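Below is how a single chain appears once it has passed through the pipeline. First comes the sequence as given, then the structure the pipeline wrote out for it. We keep one example in the README because the format questions we get most often are answered faster by looking than by reading.
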Amino acid sequence: MFSKEEAAQLKKDFWTAFGKSFPRKWLLYNTKIKDFAFKFYVDNKKAEVSLDIEMKEDIFRLAYFDKIWSLEDILKNEFIPDAILEQNFYLDNGKVISRIWVTKDNVSVFNQKTWQEIFEFFVEKMTAFEYFFYEYEDFIKDV
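Resulting structure:
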C-alpha cells in the first residue's frame, strides 16, 4: 500500500504524464452549458470518461438528458458503442445527476504499467464524446 503522500504524488504524476503525452485542450467544462461537463476519472480499479449533467433543477437536468437520450442510437452506432446512459445516477454524496459514460476495468492510477492503456482509452473515448457533442451541439443546447 501507499501512504497518503505517495498516493497523492502518483496521482499527480499520472495527470502530468497524461498531459505531456497528449497535450491538447479538451472540451471538458467548456460546453457553454452550465453544469454540463465532460470528465476524466481514474482510481485504483477503473478509468472512466463521462458526460455529467448536474443541473440543480431536475427539469433542466432531465431536459438535457432527454436530448442525449433521443440521440442514443447515433451515439452508440457512430461514436461510442459501449456508452451507458443513466437518467438518475447517484453520486457517493447522494446527489442525483444524469450521466453518460464508458468504463475501462482492471486498470489503476497506482499501476504505472496500465497508464498508457488508460491514456489511450481517455483519448479514444473523450475524442468520440467531443465529436458527438460538436456534431449535435445546436440540437443539444436547444432546451
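The longest helix spans residues 115-141.

See the next section for the split statistics.
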